Amino acid sequence: MSKLLIVGGGYAGVWAAMSAAAEKHRRQDETVEISLLSRDGFLTMRPRLYEPLSDYIRTPLAPLMKEIGVDFRIADVTSIAEKRKRVITTDKQEVSYDRLVLATGSALSKPDLPGAELCFDVDDWEAASRLNKHYDTLSEDASFVVIGASFAGIEIATELRSRFGEAVRIHLVDQNETAVHFMGQNALPHIDEALTAARIERHLGRGIEKITRKGVQLQGGEFLESETVILATGMRASTLTQSVQGEKDAYGRLKVDGSLRVIGSSDIYAGGDTSHAYADEEHVALMSCQHAIQLGRYVGHNAMSDLLGQDWILYRQEVYRTCLDLGKWGALFTVGWNPEVQATRDEGKAIKHQIVNSLIYPPSPENGPDEIFRQISLIEEMKAVV
Fold it and tell me: How far apart, in Å, do the first and last CA atoms of the chain sit?
């Protein structure tokens, strides 16, 4: 019996498990055992953690994995013994594999600033829960500082206005001269309009000297008073990538070939935020759920096909979309690597709701394995296109 081991219970890992199981089912193969290791029992809808927390933001994994025949275990993997084909967990257990899919995602890249440890974030369920408990202690005229005018930072800032009303002050700080500078000139006027409508005080093109319990000291002398400083300062790949031989990019992601196998490795694949993969001929997939889901589908299929001696499918994801929540103003929906605005305000908000309430969720285990496999299988998708 061969062993396909998937490490990571986020988008890439869960979709890899479903995709591998779909290919195993399609070939009616009983020679490969699929296992998924996750540090907890839930798929957390990470793009929604800036919202008020609810149980719907987390989906239990055990029922889905049981339905599709994947062995599911809660385990926190700390290192990979690549030569021995083992992963090692926090309790010193070793789990063997014949093929490994590394899909342990990414974590917040915290700035090297005095006082950074005082900040909050919404990087995972635990961090978001800590922040929400802190919210309950605040007065009606509280002041907030969000560091990072990124996609996440803007969603946090505009959600704060929706949640706390007009009395609070909200500061948005970034060393770049424009918010979400990568969105391009077509999108920026809409973002600026929404931030102005939400009365977000922007401090762009500004560096930070230090963070204290009373607020943020900007370079140049200005001090922003706040007892709530929230980081939205970008991501770095899981530190587990450092256990694997192979070239990494500036974010710590493992460089992979078209099958998503780690370059230089014969038996390790990487998907989601751990992989530096080309979505088309010139663009590298981003650290986002839309890329992680598709990377998961391809990496699960290809790792399974490798074990079965079958051909793999070249990963491609040429269409890139974004939908930025802008609070009461609405949302901004764009298409393309050079983003073109397709919908704004209420129309954009409707698209955002569809994405975060439906499209980023896995199929329900109540659908049964046949329907789950039909939805997930890359082969069935290609048949439908033809």
Answer: 35
